[in-house]
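Quick one before lunch.
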Amino acid sequence: MRTVLRGGRILDPSQNLDRNADLLLEQGKVAAILEAGTPVADAESLDVSGKVVVPGLIDIHVHLREPGFEYKEDIESGTRAASAGGFTRVCCMPNTNPAIDTAATVRFILERTAQVGSAHVHPIGAATRAMQGDQLTEMAELKAAGAIAISDDAFPLQNAETVRRTMEYCAMLNLPLLTHNEDKDLTHKGAMNEGYTATMLGIGGMPRIAEDIAVARTILLAQLTGCHLHLLHISTSGTVELLRRAKAEGIRVTGEACHHHWALTDEACLKYQTDAKMNPPLRTPEDNEAIKVGLADGTIDCIVTDHAPHAEYEKEMEFELAPFGILGLESSFPITYTTLVKTGILSLNDAIAKMTIEPARVLNLPDGAGTLKVGAVADVAVLDLDAVWTIDRNAVQSKSKNTPFHGYEVEGRPVFTLMAGRRIEL
Ligand SMILES: [Zn+2]
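Model of the zinc ion complex:
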């Protein structure tokens, strides 16, 4: 089983590599980076001339919906969507049914992935039983079964003592805690960002301060406990600044941003567009700008999608009643390339780093994740940077269609991925 990718430009931030070369894969591993045109015996040859060859992209924040909500997405369709987006490795959030709150559910996801996965999947365990916010899970058992981190995403812990105790266990077990940051007393039943657009639409607002307050509190608790805190889907300028200061003080905290949070504002919700409803909500141009600066100066470590599929009938509701969440896997790279790289905010190298080696570092993913070093697992994405195309909600691998980027003209398109040396056919 030897495959050689010929004629491409290999870009791998983990080893400061950016040159035209051939990539040899053997038995699921990276075997060598060869001078272009080097003869190789007994190898399948894939022509990638004119394309960029990068480590398979990594998304540490997705909702695969299985078990329990397979009508929205499942491990098979969700990892196909990942591959279509250039991703070879994803971490899935625990708000399934049952929640990922026992070792048995962690094992189920890993077994199911082995059967039908088009990408590697790392489950993230819940902090509390059924994500109800009170009784802590058996985090040591979750970790032993394969959980990569702990999170309360979608059901943010409101009680500071519960956060503190969760962090103490996470610190002891060396598991990162990933927090959705929202003071629910301040967001009430809000459905979008508090501000002019919400007022015009007559929709209850979710103020930016609800995120900032939760972030400030959580950072202080991370400082107290020594837990590695990772801030999920940063949406406000306040959070970017708090993260910047916490890092400067040496607190163990990292952060991520989703492409919709820098590429769109709350005006995407005009006409009661439920495909622009997510939590945290789309904010303001000032927040877009702060997130871009945070990505460029290294405050924000990685780019994620918060891929959150919902069925069409669920989104075809009054704005207030529709569920929060949008697709992300198949629009992430093209939106990132178009809005950050083509505009000169991030170099291509830095954008790829934030989608490969940086998320691998943030969650201590297994050796060989996010790199094309010789000996690493042969997870590869091939990108066509010259492609100009239009995002089409009806042409996705996901089971759901809820994307606000439908009709957007973008540049840069993932062509195919290889997972452990195997080309994924879609
Ligand atoms: Zn999420």
